[in-house]
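Q&A log
Question type: sequence-to-structure
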Amino acid sequence: MTRSPWAVLSVCSIAVFLASLDGTVLYVAFQDIQRSYADVSAADLSWVINAYTIAYAALLVPAGRLADRYGRRRFFLAGVTLFSVASLLCGIAPTAGLLVFARVLQAVGAAALLPASLALVLAAFPPERRASAVATWGAVGGLAAAIGPSLGSVVIDKLGWPWVFFINLPLGLLAVLRGRKLLTESRADAALGVPDPTGIALLVVGMTAAACAVVKGADWGAADPRTLACGAGALLTLVLFTLRARTAADPAVNVRLFLDARFAFANAATFLFGIAFVVMFFGNVFFLTQHWHYTLREAGLAITPGPLTVIPFAMLGGRIADRHGHRNVLVAGGLLFALSGLWFVLGVRHAPDFWGEWLPRSILTGAAVGLVLPSLSGAAVANLPRQDFAVGGAINQAMRQFGSVLGVALAIVILGEEGSHAEAAAFERAYAVLIAGGLLTALLSLPLGRPRTLLRDASTPVPVASDA
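Response status: OK
Response body:
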């Protein structure tokens, strides 16, 4: 255990905050960016957002595997450095093409630092405190993703869109300097050789094709040959990846992880909750600006109370999980999230009422997110051996990212491309996704009983079934 585990957590949390924030902040910056590159179509410029999400999700798992093999501290510091440099390039990019390229570099940095940061946190804390630590780590990421639109609207209004990237620089520098001083190197006990490069390539190609099918399928159409080609390519390469992982001497991902029912159920819940989470904040921004006619800045400020509720409830959920396991926390959080969606549906036709309707509903939603997102991260890795900490966390975060990609597409389908003509019934359908997402999360969390041990030693094999 390191000398100061909470100091390790603070350093890792800074970097996770940056990576998570940039996954959502550009949703409110897009129109301003479009005005800066007036000669570029909106469809082409959408890759400023899509390229980050796709590259981030596709590289999380291989980066986690490489961090396990070659050093979590090394990958963390390299990832934060690359992310910070890429942020600077984003802010000064003279062309849209260079901006998209810089966003891809950002995603590579984020993919390198995120799974390494979780492994560093897990290694820093004793087993009996890890649920609380992971809850705090996850809460910071959830908070950053949730406040991205609100923070971005204020920064853009005052300073312009390049500053949503420039604000990353001082925090990135702080994380690197503190990380070099506080973090100790760790790697998987069996870290020999290079993870199967063919398997890594198949995984990257398959995940990228799947993300393209979801992201661009909304524009191309479900029956368009390009959509079908991406979908078929994703299916084929992921099947080949699975076969390769079962036969390679040193596979990119140990597919035995999915034999653990806890790991499988937690990742399924993460994917579905990721969809509902993105539909939630898209629906909130569109509802406030189009249905209640708030300005973008007013909408950003109105959204803020919900995210501020995330951290205290995440910490509360972590303490409960330390003592009783993740199931009760996740079931309660899923049901609260569904209740918040129902509350929105029942009040969606009402006249603007921030204090009587919006504020209490937002606090309820923030409490639900605080209970669910961090606990899902902890539940997914709770039965894994130490050598799979980083890759297990990476798989879980990748599932959330792919849920986010599908959530964006679903929100656009439900509310329309700009949300400007969405009627009350459309918002009811959007918030119905919250109800479904919350209920399904609670259902999938029922098998997530207390793990056999809080976290296993590297020599302990992965269990085949959960402790439900």
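Response note: The two ends are 30 Å apart (CA to CA).
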